[in-house]
Amino acid sequence: MPLTLNHIARQGGHGAAMMPIIQGVGRAAIEIAALLRGAVFRGALGEAGAKNVQGEQQQKLDILSDAIFLEEMRATGHICAVGSEEQEALLVISEYEDADYLVLVDPLDGSSNLDVDGPVGTIFSVVKRKSANDNTPVVDDTLQSGREVIAAGYVLYGPATMLVCSVGDGVDGYTYNPTTARFELSHGNMKIPATGGYYSVNEANADKWLDGMGDRLQNMKKETGLGMRYVGAMVADMHRTLLKGGVFLYPADSKNTNGKLRLLYEAIPMGFLMEQAGGKSLSKDQHVLDVQPESLHQRVPVYFGSKEAINALLPDA
Ligand code: P6P
To answer: What would the pLDDT profile of 52-80 be if each residue is shown by its tens digit?
Structure first.
């Protein structure tokens, strides 16, 4: 019989505490997947007419997905606050502001793919509050390095809906089974292949890259002979990298001098998963999990992949 998300309760040191939270992520994923499938019939595609704190045009589905995710985190009863890509400030869950955990989330990553029916995702990580439980949670509770992450994962809305997560005891992939209406373990103990796969980067930015990344990428291509795949949605590109091997990177460039991807709800959760899957996760010259966050929406350059590909790209890292 298949294992379900309940299996998480038996994993690692935090599985029992994390299982209800990841069950909540699963409920949000099912609702968001249904929302995406019917969006065109409800006039829910396209831009919402506002920009988020990132200065990016919000899609209507960004706002709807953010609301669904927040409600399911509230409903778990274990989350005191949520830091979301779509919300400038930390969202305190007033009924449970004495709860132990906070969630950082990109509720609908890669939403520019929506109008072309491309894959998108949700990325999340869970940290334990630093403040006393009888205090109101604050942004400082979220500013913890990836070494403090209790759980992290992503949902990939593709031909199938997958939830890939870790509580620090390896990485497991669960696929939503519409017959049983639940997530069932389909990719147990995921490990990134040591060799092969693809490099995945938006090479249109190559002439703007900083830190000599243009030459470094050319050297890596010569040394490894990897092919290239790029979807433009981090969850899809990272999921392929985890399964097939290779490297995903978003370097700093003259336009985004700190890189484009956000530390707290993109780089850290993905870096946590990559390291749990036997890969490497770098940002500039340090492990992404060692970067000390300074603000909720801080951006960083990222280099994630197999040890072979990362060592070919950044030999002195
Ligand atoms: P570009 C999507 O907007 C996103 O945040 C990530 O999902 C993705 O990896 C990246 O930006 C794509 O950026 O500049 O290549 O379109």
So the answer is: 887 888 889 999 999 999 999 999 999 99
pLDDT tens-digit series, residues 209-257: 999 999 999 999 999 999 999 999 999 999 999 999 999 999 999 999 9
Pick from 248, 273, 274: nearest CA to 261:
248
What is the pTM assigned to this prediction? Answer: 0.97
CB 124 within 8 A of CB 269: yes
Q: How far is the CA of 38 from the centre of ligand 1 (A)?
A: 24
Handedness of CA 156, 160, 166, 171 (dihedral sign): negative
Q: How far is CA 2 from CA 96, 187, 246, in A?
A: 33, 11, 30
Query: How many Cα neighbours within 13 Å face the side chain of 279?
Result: 33
**Index of the ligand 1 atom closest to the CA of residue 230:** 15
45 neighbors 115 (Cβ within 8 angstroms):
yes
Which residue ranges form the domains of the chain, and what is each CATH number? 5-187 (3.30.540.10), 198-313 (3.40.190.80)
Residues at CB less than 6 angstroms from ligand 1: 109-110, 112, 202, 232-234, 237, 260
Residue 93 Rama label (left phi>0; alpha psi -120 to 50; beta): beta
